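Let's practice the habit of predicting before peeking. Look at the sequence and jot down your guess about where helices and strands might fall. Then scroll down.
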Amino acid sequence: MFTELRSIRAFEDGIEAVNILQNEGIKVGVCSNLSAPYGECVRNLFPSLDAYGFSYELGFVKPDPEIFLLTCKAMGVDNTDFFGKGRVLVIGDSRRCDLDGARAALLNGYLLDRDGFGNFSNLMDFAEAVVQSEQRFR
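Done guessing? Here is the structure:
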């Protein structure tokens, strides 16, 4: 397992997307069903996130809405504004866990499918769409 953990790398567009969003003052967090050893890898790969919502720490697994709500709470945001400046956007590669789970928590859920069958095929397009959307609220 140690060899596998050392081999984990972030998608390059993930690193760039996080940088773009944070440079715009947008909070970024992760909400994941990863086990403890993988969570530490994510923290090392993305040390500047605003929140880390891991199922092994929170006691809930996606698509349970509670894991999303607890991650939002850790970020200092909530799900009361679906359309305005305070809205929460969730993107992930599982229709059931990420898109449907986020929507069950009354959050904006989007599907990342790198083959082009989701709302977004890469994280840069998602980040750029978020930034453009945020500019309307400034």
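How did you do? The helical segments are 2-7, 12-23, 36-45, 55-58, 65-75, 95-104, 123-135.
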